[in-house]
Recover the amino acids of this structure.
C-alpha cells in the first residue's frame, strides 16, 4: 500500500466505528468497546507505519507525502482537498495516535466494564454503584457504548485535522472536535453543571471559530487557494505580507494570521477565551477531560504552528511584527495568569486544566517570538505528560470513588485534593506515573521531557532578547512546579485525611497500562531534542527533533546558541518550585491552613463573574428586556395594535363610502337599472312584424352604406 | 355583345321589384315570391360576371346552381310553413302573424 493511500485511510476506522456503534452494536457493551478500541488500534497502526516511513525519507520537508483530489467546483477551477504529512505532521501524528489509542484503552477500565449494572443508575448520570452480596461495588456506565461512539468521532476529527493539506478540511476536523467536546462535556446530561459547561464550551469556542472562518475566507479571497503548500510558497507569502489591509496597520498576512489565531485562542483556551476549559472538567471522566485538555487543545496550537509562515511573513529576525507581538503577549499573559489560578484550586482536575492553559500559553508565546521548533517540541512533550497527568488524576478519582462507595458517604467529593492524602501506598502505579508526569510538567532537570522543551522555549526567548517574555515565562514555570508539587503532596504524600482516602484502591490494568506507556514517553521524548551544545550530554544523541521538524519550513530555523543563563533559570525555577510546593504543603491538613487560597485566585480572577456581568447579563437583558419586551411586545406589537384599528377604520370607510354606494348601488344596481330602462325603451321597435324588420334593416343598410360611401370612398 | 352593365341594371331592377314585393305584399306567399325574384336577380349577376370574366373558371355557374337548389328547398319549406300557419291561424296575412312578439 502506498504511504499516501495509507494516510487517506488513517481517519476512517474511528468514524466507521462511530457509525457501527451508533447504528448496530450499541446494545452490546463488549461489542461496542471492541469496535471502538479495534478501530483506534487500526488508526494507531496506520499512523505508526506512516511515521516510520516518514522517518526514512530524506528531506521530507521538501518532498512530503502528499496527495489530493479535486473536490468542490469553484467556477472554473476546483477546490482541492488532500492529505499532507510533512515532518511536523508526522511528529504530531505520532503523539496523537498514541494518546488516542491510550484514551480508548483507558476508557474501558474507567467506565467499569465488567461490573454489574447499577441499582439506581440512569442514563445521563454518573453510575452510583451496585450492591452485590451486601457490598457496594462500582457499577458500569449506563451509556458505555455511546461514550465509545463519541470517542470514535472525536478521533476522526483529530486525525482529519492532522493529515489535512488545506485549511478547509482542517477546519472541518476542528469543528468535528468542537462538536465532540460539546457532546462529551455534556455526556452526563442529567447534571445541570455538565449541561451548562457543555454549552459554555461550545459557545466560547464558537467565538474563536467564527473569526477563524473569516480568516479562512479572507485568505481564500486573497490567494484563491487554501492548500498549505500553495500558500506557504515564497511569492504568495511575500505578496500577502506586502498587501496592506488598513486594519490596525496589519498586512494581509498579519490580519489573516491574527484571525486564524483567534480561532486558536478559543480552541486552545487562551486568554480571554480560556473560561470554558476549567468548566469542561465537568466532563464525566478524566478521559474526556483529557481529550479536551491534552489532545483537542493541542489542535489549536498545531493550527498556529501550521500557520507559522503566515504569522512570521515579513519578520526579518529582529523586531517582532505587530501580529507576532500580539500572539506573544497573549501566550505569555495566559501562561502566567493561568498558573496563578492553578495555585489556588482544590479540584484535582481543575488544577490540571489551568496548568494546561498555562502550558499552552508557553507554546503560543514561543510561536509569538518565532521559536517554531521549541513550540512544536513543547506541544508534543506536553501532550504526553499532560495526558499522563489527566489519566493519572482519573485513576486517583476512580480510586477515591471506590473509597466513597466503601464508606457510603456520598458527601465526600472524590475530586477534592483535601480529601485525599497518602494515596502513594494505596495506588503505587498511579503514584509513580503521576510523579513522572508531574515532574515532567514542572521541568525536572535533565531527566524529564518537559525540562528539555520548556528550556528550549526559555533559551529561545533569551537568545532573541525577549527578556520580558523570558522573565514572565520563568515565573510561570516556577509557579507550575509549585502547584504541581502542591498537587502531588496533597494527593499522594502524607497521611490519608479522610476515611475514603484510606479505602482508595488501585485501578484495573486497562487504566494503569496507558499510564505506564505514557510515562515512558513523558521521560524519553525529551531526549530526542537535546541541544547539541549542551554541557556533558549534548551531542550524545543528535538533536533529532530540531533537524526533523525544522525542515518543515522552507527556511530551517536556527537553534539558539547555548547559554548558561536560561539553563540555570529553568533548573532553579523547577527545583525551587518543587521544593517550595513540598515544604509549604507538607503539613497542610485543611483548606483553611492553605495560605494561598486568596479569593482573587480562588475565583479565577473573577473572569466568570466579569463575563457574566459584561456579556451574559447584557445579552440576557438585550434579549429579554430590549428585544422581547421593548422591541417585540412594545414596538412591533404596538405597531400592530395601531395598525389593527387603522385597518379596521379604513376598511369600514371603504365599505360605507365606496363599496356600498359606488360598487353596489351605482355600478351593480345601476347597470341593471340602465339595462332595464334601455330594454324598456327599445321594446316598441320590436313589433314582431317581419316586413317592418326588413324595412328597418334596409334603412340601416342605406344609412350605413351611405355613410361608408361618403366617408371612405368619396 | 350585350354590355355587362345592362345585365347588372336588369338584375338590380329585378332585385328591387322583388324587395318591393317582400316589403309591401300582405300575403305570405307573395312575400315568398318576392324573395324568389331577389334570389334570381343574384343568379343573373353571378352568371353575368362569370360570362364576362374567366370563362374557364366554373365558380359563377356552380354558385348559381347552388342558389337554385337552396331556393327550391327554401320555397318548399316556406310553403309548408305557410300551409301549417294557415291551418292553425286560418290566415296567411303577414301582419297578423306577429307571434314573435305578442
Amino acid at each position: 500500500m502506498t504511504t499516501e493511500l495509507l494516510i487517506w485511510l488513517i481517519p476512517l476506522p474511528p468514524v466507521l466505528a462511530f457509525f457501527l456503534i451508533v447504528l448496530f452494536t450499541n446494545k452490546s457493551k463488549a461489542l461496542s468497546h471492541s469496535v471502538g478500541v479495534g478501530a483506534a488500534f487500526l488508526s494507531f497502526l496506520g499512523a505508526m507505519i506512516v511515521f516510520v516511513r516518514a522517518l526514512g525519507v530524506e528531506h521530507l520537508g521538501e518532498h512530503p507525502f502528499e496527495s489530493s483530489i479535486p473536490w468542490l467546483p469553484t467556477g472554473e477551477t476546483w477546490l482541492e482537498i488532500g492529505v499532507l504529512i510533512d515532518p511536523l505532521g508526522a511528529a504530531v501524528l505520532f503523539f496523537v495516535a498514541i494518546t488516542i489509542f491510550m484514551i480508548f484503552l483507558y476508557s474501558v477500565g474507567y467506565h467499569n466494564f465488567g461490573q454489574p449494572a447499577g441499582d439506581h443508575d440512569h442514563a445521563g448520570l454518573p453510575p452510583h454503584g451496585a450492591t452485590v452480596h451486601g457490598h457496594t461495588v462500582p457499577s458500569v456506565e449506563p451509556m458505555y457504548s455511546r461514550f465509545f461512539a463519541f470517542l470514535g468521532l472525536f478521533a476522526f476529527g483529530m486525525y482529519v485535522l492532522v493529515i489535512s493539506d488545506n485549511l478547509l478540511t482542517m477546519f472541518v476536523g476542528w469543528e468535528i472536535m468542537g462538536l465532540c467536546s460539546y457532546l462529551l462535556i455534556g455526556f452526563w446530561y442529567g447534571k445541570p453543571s455538565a449541561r451548562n459547561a457543555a454549552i459554555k464550551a461550545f459557545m466560547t469556542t464558537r467565538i474563536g471559530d467564527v473569526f477563524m472562518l473569516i480568516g479562512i475566507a479572507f485568505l481564500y479571497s486573497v490567494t484563491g487557494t487554501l492548500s498549505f503548500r500553495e500558500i506557504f510558497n515564497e511569492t504568495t507569502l511575500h505578496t500577502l505580507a506586502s498587501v496592506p489591509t488598513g486594519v490596525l496597520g496589519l498586512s494581509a498576512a498579519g490580519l489573516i494570521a491574527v484571525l486564524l489565531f483567534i480561532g486558536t485562542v478559543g480552541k486552545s483556551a487562551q486568554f480571554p477565551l480560556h473560561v470554558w476549559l476549567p468548566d469542561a472538567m465537568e466532563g464525566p471522566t478524566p478521559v474526556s477531560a483529557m481529550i479536551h485538555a491534552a489532545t483537542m487543545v493541542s489542535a489549536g496550537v498545531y493550527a498556529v504552528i501550521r500557520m507559522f509562515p503566515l504569522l512570521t511573513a515579513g519578520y526579518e529576525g529582529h523586531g517582532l511584527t505587530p501580529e507576532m507581538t500580539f500572539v506573544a503577549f497573549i501566550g505569555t499573559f495566559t501562561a502566567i495568569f493561568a498558573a496563578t489560578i492553578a495555585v489556588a484550586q482544590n479540584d484535582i482536575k481543575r488544577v490540571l486544566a489551568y496548568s494546561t492553559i498555562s502550558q499552552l500559553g508557553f507554546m503560543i508565546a514561543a510561536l509569538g517570538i518565532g521559536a517554531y521548533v521549541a513550540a512544536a517540541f513543547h506541544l508534543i512533550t506536553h501532550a504526553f505528560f499532560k495526558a499522563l497527568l489527566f489519566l493519572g488524576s482519573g485513576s486517583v478519582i476512580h480510586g477515591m470513588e471506590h473509597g466513597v462507595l466503601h464508606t457510603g458517604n456520598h458527601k465526600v467529593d472524590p475530586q477534592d485534593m483535601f480529601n485525599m492524602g497518602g494515596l502513594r501506598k494505596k495506588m503505587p502505579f498511579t503514584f509513580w506515573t503521576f510523579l513522572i508526569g508531574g515532574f515532567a510538567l514542572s521541568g525536572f532537570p535533565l531527566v524529564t521531557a518537559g525540562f528539555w522543551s520548556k528550556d528550549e522555549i526559555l533559551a529561545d526567548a533569551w537568545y532573541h532578547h525577549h527578556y520580558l517574555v523570558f522573565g514572565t515565562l520563568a515565573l510561570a514555570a516556577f509557579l507550575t512546579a509549585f502547584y504541581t508539587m502542591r498537587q502531588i503532596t496533597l494527593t499522594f504524600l502524607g497521611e490519608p485525611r479522610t476515611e475514603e482516602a484510606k479505602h482508595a484502591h488501585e485501578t484495573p490494568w486497562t487504566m494503569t497500562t496507558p499510564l505506564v506507556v505514557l510515562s515512558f514517553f513523558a521521560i524519553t521524548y525529551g531526549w530526542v531534542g537535546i541541544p547539541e551544545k549542551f554541557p556533558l550530554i549534548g551531542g550524545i544523541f543528535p538533536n533529532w527533533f530540531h533537524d526533523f521538524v525544522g525542515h518543515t519550513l522552507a527556511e530551517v530555523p536556527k537553534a539558539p546558541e547555548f547559554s548558561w543563563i536560561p539553563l540555570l533559570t529553568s533548573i532553579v525555577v523547577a527545583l525551587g518550585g518543587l521544593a517550595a510546593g513540598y515544604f509549604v504543603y507538607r503539613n497542610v491538613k485543611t483548606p483553611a491552613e492553605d495560605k494561598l487560597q486568596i479569593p482573587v485566585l480562588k475565583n479565577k480572577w473573577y473572569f466568570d463573574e466579569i463575563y457574566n456581568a459584561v456579556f451574559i447579563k447584557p445579552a440576557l437583558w438585550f434579549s429579554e428586556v430590549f428585544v422581547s419586551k421593548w422591541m417585540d411586545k412594545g414596538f412591533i406589537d404596538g405597531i400592530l395594535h395601531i395598525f389593527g384599528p387603522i385597518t379596521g377604520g379604513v376598511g369600514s370607510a371603504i365599505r360605507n363610502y365606496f363599496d356600498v354606494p359606488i360598487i353596489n348601488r351605482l355600478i351593480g344596481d345601476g347597470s341593471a337599472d340602465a339595462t332595464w330602462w334601455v330594454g324598456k325603451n327599445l321594446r316598441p321597435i320590436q313589433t314582431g312584424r317581419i316586413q317592418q324588420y326588413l324595412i328597418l334593416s334596409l334603412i340601416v343598410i342605406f344609412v350605413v352604406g351611405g355613410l361608408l360611401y361618403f366617408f371612405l370612398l368619396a | 355583345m350585350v354590355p355587362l352593365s345592362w345585365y347588372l341594371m336588369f338584375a338590380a331592377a329585378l332585385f328591387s321589384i322583388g324587395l318591393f314585393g317582400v316589403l309591401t305584399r300582405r300575403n305570405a306567399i307573395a312575400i315568398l315570391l318576392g324573395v324568389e325574384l331577389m334570389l334570381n336577380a343574384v343568379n343573373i349577376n353571378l352568371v353575368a360576371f362569370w360570362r364576362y370574366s374567366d370563362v374557364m373558371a366554373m365558380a359563377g355557374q356552380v354558385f348559381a346552381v347552388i342558389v337554385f337548389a337552396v331556393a327550391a328547398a327554401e320555397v318548399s319549406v316556406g310553403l309548408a310553413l305557410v300551409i301549417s300557419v294557415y291551418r292553425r291561424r286560418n290566415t296567411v296575412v303577414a301582419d297578423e302573424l306577429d307571434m314573435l312578439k305578442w
Q: What stands out?
A: The interface with chain A takes residues 19, 22-24, 31, 94-95, 97-102 of chain B (CB under 8 Å).
